[in-house]
Write a structure and sequence with these properties.
There is one protein chain. With 140 residues, the protein is of the alpha/beta class. Helices cover 48% and strands 26% of the residues. Helix 2 links the parallel strand 4 and strand 5.
């Protein structure tokens, strides 16, 4: 089984996480600052080129009532372009409250406010990915 990439796609940044080769755990990898879809895709491919990624799990920002809004449509557009560019399988995972959860984890770990901004998005991506990995383990 190859690695799975986890994404937290925002308007300003993309948090990136990756699974271990066995697909058990998710680790935060990097944050990509958005500049335009072509450059964002290139930066993502560069950051993950040696990881043998087989699939992408992207956080889908659903509204609290479970419906998709404008941000979910933006995420789907970006991820569709990623899938077309890379040929990787694409899965969506509900990401409601993962940024809040990431912030709380970092605060409880004593990470200072100025340091959190650079870590928050990749931590959210790791939580999204870990949630999906845990769901896959329960299905086995």
């Amino acid at each position: 089984m190859g690695r799975t990439l986890g994404l937290d796609v925002g308007d300003k940044r993309i948090g990136v996480a990756v699974s271990d080769p066995m697909g058990w755990t998710a680790q935060p990898l990097t944050v990509i600052h958005r500049v335009g879809i072509a450059k964002d895709l290139a930066a993502l491919q560069e950051a993950t080129k040696d990881l043998e990624v087989e699939r992408v799990v992207a956080g889908l920002p659903l509204e609290m009532d479970g419906k998709e809004g404008t941000q979910a449509a933006r995420v789907r557009r970006f991820c569709q372009a990623l899938a077309e560019t890379t040929g990787l399988a694409l899965v969506y995972q509900d990401e409601r409250l993962t940024t809040v959860q990431s912030k709380r984890l970092l605060e409880s770990a004593g990470v200072r406010r100025e340091q959190r901004k650079g870590v928050l998005d990749k931590m959210a991506a790791a939580l999204i990915l870990q949630s999906w990995l845990d769901g896959q383990a329960h299905r086995s």
